[in-house]
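User: Cell envelope biogenesis protein OmpA. Structure?
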Amino acid sequence: MTTTATTTRATTSTVGALIRTGVIATVVASAATMAVAAAGHAAGISLDMGGASIPVSGFGTLTAVFSLIGVAIAALLSRFARRPRRAFVRTTVVLTALSLVPDVIADAGTATKALLMLTHLVAAAIVIPAVARRLAA
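Assistant: Predicted structure:
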């Protein structure tokens, strides 16, 4: 009985640490993608896609939304996967690769497409390792 209570407490604190780390990584990644987009725009790269301009804040917002979805995936895998870290890294690398597809086919210039893809990779490079470190191997 005591072992069960200890195990439950350890699992709860592990999930709590995972979520805290994920939220912090999300904030950092959102700021980083906005900085990359702003730097690209300042360097003369258009943020226009399909005739509409993407606001720099939009990069941060979408990064936050999809990063938090990644944190939720990590929390689920920590509970249900036999090897949560491995499953998380594989899943998120595939999802990151798939996230580049819309950028490739977007109605935008080549430099804009490259900037969009760079922001995806920057976010992934920040969030995936930070969250993966909190998962059991």
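The helical segments are 2-42, 56-80, 84-105, 110-132. Confidence is low (pLDDT under 50) at residues 6-12.
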